[in-house]
Backbone:
């Protein structure tokens, strides 16, 4: 499954980052690397973007960007 | 004092929110200097650190970044400064409450040949969490000097700078935390054996393995060789490198943290509790609106506690004392922002009077006018803007520094994405309702140039406080003389129409001249924290200085120029305020009057007084307050009295009446078009000067043209639609055609771009 399908309150581990280019680079730089633990904290009032916790900090990204992150649920 | 030469240069590098700026302020104190990096509108802050035993170091604050791979123009600056300008030492600021992600950048900068000292910041905050960090162990693991500091409390700064001084003397070779691999070794040998002698070969070879865009530009032939290597290996090096960096940090560095390590979901800190409320699904948006209301109320309200409705203090204070008008008026206490503005105006007004009395000789009247109204008027116009601009900026700095602004972007991103913007551009636009100047300054928080251009261009459409008198006066005339609905409804519709025009403009720009892929939105939500008064003060001081430097000359000169034009006739006779009708300015008004014919306030107003509206359009360029002030002068000139005593709306009414009596035709559509023209046209000179310094170079010309075009077309459209309602069909059809045209242009452009790719 992909990160954008995760429900609020669920935890998953990153499998790999798909796609290419700058967004992918950014996701990797921000610590979304294979094996990283991601907790979906909340969604914005309008349903998008999403807020995740990883490596001890909060990160927000849009669902279109989260689609590129494939994850495995714990 | 002779400026001593610095012994060495230290660059501050670190993640956004790592406390880098606080550290910079603590190190440099009053010596800080704000400039611009060459070629881009990004602030360059530098200053001096003085050692207690004598000697000093130059400190350069680099833009906050997460990685040395370029993402925004700011990140490119930080990277090229370290790689190409090569400071003597890099001080890498690491927020130890967020160790893993902060050290990711550290592992990259260690690959360059530049000496590195790591400043472990926020050790005090870590202590509060019941944790500690073993600095000497971390130092051993990373192979660099590590100093624990608290930038906020100023702890460990001397030790840090002593370490930096030591490190600056050394020669260092880059080292990598990545495990060895064949490709890594080969890429390095490609880079080190090349005769072009690239400095920091390790750093460059790793960037080449990552297929880094900047690296491809810098060393194309070397990159090509490395790329072949990568293809042969079948490994995705981009992921591999990022992954190995984080693995190293988890394995070697994270154990340096002593104390309990919670899993991600267990952490529910202070920040999370605040966040539950502020970004709440239902309460998030209302809370944002409420915060905005409170800020605007404190800065701009003339009835701060709503006492005029209750009548509680009506007559309590002696009327006619010097305090009336400063703190209260009409049974209402003013807001702190208005009081501050009144105070400044009181001072400057008093000063003008003193100077005026000093030059009291009747033969010197023109000189007095020139000094008091021209020179001092120009000087005080600049100062008069300041209190509310800075006050507004102060509040928004608090919202920004506390971490709330990032949440606002998070809440509203969904809406703004549709228009090719991100949630971040909401704030500058809303600030525009207060004053365009701080609003335009605040577009620095936006990521890309195009997003910045789009936002700056529509900020004036969010009608600012100085335009409010135009709205209320002309709307007053509309309801008094033309039987329109209540004037506040007219004013409200102007605000809404301004927003509508802004949306239309942004969409059209996004499809045509400012095309770009919707900028990605991957953003850290920093923990909430109380803003530091010291940092805020420095922030505000910087902005005030910047505003003065950029806006002073332009406002000063134009005020004097317009004063001269409106107070002299062609034969150099000096004119009083109420003789404006025979001034050079009035002739310029007569000259450009026909231009406004499509907008309803041009030739159809006749020749006697019909140029009045054209003249106010010119004086409004200095400050929008001048539009109505000029109307009052005109009213006085019409009635042949020394000073116009009536209300703003009556002044407009007098001008309209004079025009009508002399055979001109003023329609309600023309008056409404006049309001819309002023809302949409080139803003005041202060805002233009600010826009010029914030826009990418060469963009102020097209932006001025854009404002003129939108106000001209917009004014025409509103005039036509109100006076001949059937033209609504035409306007809507033209607008639809424009959208369709822009849409197809965009489609064709993207098709041809795809083909090329």
Residues:
């Amino acid at each position: 499954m992909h990160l954008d399908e995760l429900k609020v309150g669920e935890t998953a581990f990153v499998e790999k980052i798909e796609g290419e280019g700058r967004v992918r680079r950014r996701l990797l730089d921000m610590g979304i690397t294979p094996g990283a633990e991601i907790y979906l904290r909340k969604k914005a009032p309008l349903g998008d973007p999403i807020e995740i916790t990883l490596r001890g900090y909060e990160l927000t990204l849009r669902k279109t960007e989260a689609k590129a992150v494939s994850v495995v649920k714990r | 004092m002779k400026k001593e030469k610095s012994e060495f240069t230290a660059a501050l590098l670190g993640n956004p929110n790592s406390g880098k700026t606080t550290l910079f302020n603590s190190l440099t104190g009053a010596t800080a200097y704000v400039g611009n990096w060459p070629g881009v509108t990004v602030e360059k802050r530098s200053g001096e650190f003085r050692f207690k035993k004598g000697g000093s170091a130059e400190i350069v604050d680099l833009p906050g970044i997460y990685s040395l791979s370029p993402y925004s123009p700011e990140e490119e600056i930080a990277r090229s400064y370290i790689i190409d300008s090569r400071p003597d030492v890099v001080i890498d600021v690491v927020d130890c409450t967020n160790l893993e992600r902060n050290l990711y950048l550290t592992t990259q900068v260690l690959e360059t040949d530049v000496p590195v000292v790591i400043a472990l910041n926020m050790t005090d905050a870590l202590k509060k969490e019941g944790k500690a960090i073993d600095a000497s162990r971390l130092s051993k693991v990373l192979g660099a000097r590590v100093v624990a500091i608290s930038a906020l409390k100023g702890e460990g700064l001397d030790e840090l700078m002593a370490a930096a001084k030591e490190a600056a003397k050394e020669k260092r070779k880059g080292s990598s935390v990545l495990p060895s691999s064949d490709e890594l070794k080969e890429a390095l040998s490609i880079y080190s054996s090349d005769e072009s002698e690239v400095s920091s070969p390790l750093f460059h070879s790793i960037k080449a393995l990552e297929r880094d865009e900047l690296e491809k530009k810098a060393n194309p032939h070397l990159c090509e060789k490395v790329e072949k290597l990568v293809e042969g290996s079948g490994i995705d090096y981009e992921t591999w490198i990022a992954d190995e960096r984080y693995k190293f940090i988890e394995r070697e560095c994270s154990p340096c943290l002593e104390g309990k390590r919670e899993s991600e979901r267990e952490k529910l800190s202070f920040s999370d509790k605040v966040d539950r409320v502020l970004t709440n699904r239902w309460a998030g948006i209302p809370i944002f609106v409420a915060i905005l209301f409170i800020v605007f109320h404190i800065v701009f309200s003339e009835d701060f506690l709503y006492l005029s409705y209750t009548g509680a203090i009506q007559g309590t204070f002696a009327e006619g004392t010097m305090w009336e008008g400063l703190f209260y008026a009409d049974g209402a206490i003013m807001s702190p922002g208005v009081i501050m503005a009144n105070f400044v105006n009181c001072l400057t007004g008093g000063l003008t009077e003193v100077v005026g009395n000093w030059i009291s000789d009747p033969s010197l009247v023109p000189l007095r006018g020139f000094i008091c109204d021209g020179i001092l008027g120009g000087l005080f116009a600049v100062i008069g803007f300041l209190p509310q601009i800075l006050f507004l900026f102060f509040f928004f700095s608090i919202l920004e520094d506390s971490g709330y602004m990032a949440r606002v972007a998070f809440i509203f991103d969904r809406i703004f994405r549709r228009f090719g913007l991100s949630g971040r551009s909401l704030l500058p636009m809303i600030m525009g309702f207060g004053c365009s100047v701080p609003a335009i300054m605040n577009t620095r928080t936006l990521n890309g140039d195009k997003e910045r251009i789009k936002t700056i261009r529509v900020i004036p459409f969010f009608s600012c406080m100085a335009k409010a008198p135009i709205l209320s006066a002309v709307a007053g005339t509309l309801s008094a003389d033309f039987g329109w609905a209540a004037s506040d409804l007219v004013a409200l519709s102007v605000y809404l129409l301004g927003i509508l025009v802004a949306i239309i403009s942004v969409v059209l720009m996004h499809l045509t001249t400012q095309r770009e892929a919707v900028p990605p939105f991957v953003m850290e939500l920093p923990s909430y924290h109380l803003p530091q008064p010291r940092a805020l003060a420095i922030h505000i001081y910087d902005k005030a200085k910047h505003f003065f430097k950029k806006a002073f000359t332009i406002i000063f000169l134009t005020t004097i120029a317009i004063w001269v034009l409106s107070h002299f006739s062609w034969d150099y006779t000096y004119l009083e305020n109420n003789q404006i009708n025979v001034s050079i300015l009035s002739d310029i008004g007569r000259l450009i009057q026909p231009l406004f014919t499509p907008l309803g306030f041009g030739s159809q107003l006749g020749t006697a007084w019909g140029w009045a509206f054209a003249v106010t359009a010119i004086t409004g360029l200095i400050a929008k307050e001048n539009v109505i002030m000029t109307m009052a002068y005109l009213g006085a000139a019409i009635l042949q009295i020394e000073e116009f005593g009536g209300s703003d709306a009556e002044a407009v009414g007098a001008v309209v009446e004079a025009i009508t009596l002399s055979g001109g035709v003023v329609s309600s559509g023309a008056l409404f078009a006049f309001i819309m023209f002023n809302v949409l046209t080139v803003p005041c000179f202060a805002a233009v000067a600010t826009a010029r310094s914030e826009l990418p170079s060469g963009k102020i010309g097209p932006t001025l043209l854009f404002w003129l075009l939108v106000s001209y077309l917009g004014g025409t459209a509103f005039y036509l639609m109100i006076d001949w309602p059937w033209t609504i069909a035409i306007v809507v059809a033209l607008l639809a055609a424009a959208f369709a045209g822009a849409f197809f242009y965009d489609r064709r452009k993207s098709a041809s771009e795809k083909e090329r790719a």
Residues 6 and 40 of chain A are 7 Å apart (CA to CA). Chain A has one domain: 3-73.
